[in-house]
Inverse folding.
């Protein structure tokens, strides 16, 4: 099982949408993508 994540700028400011997909290498199937909005406050902590 691997996570493939992509970061997309969302709207104005420094908001970033992180989309992760769980990928099963053995079967080649993808599972439900998980989207998470990373706000400016979170980015400041990184």
């Amino acid at each position: 099982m691997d996570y493939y994540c992509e970061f997309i700028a969302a709207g104005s400011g420094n908001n970033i949408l992180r989309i992760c997909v769980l990928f099963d290498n053995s079967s080649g199937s993808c599972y439900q993508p998980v989207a998470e909005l990373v706000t400016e406050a979170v980015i400041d902590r990184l």
Observations:
- The CA atoms of residues 8 and 31 lie 20 Å apart.
- The chain has a mean pLDDT of 77.
- The chain has one domain: 2-45.
- The longest helix spans residues 40-45.
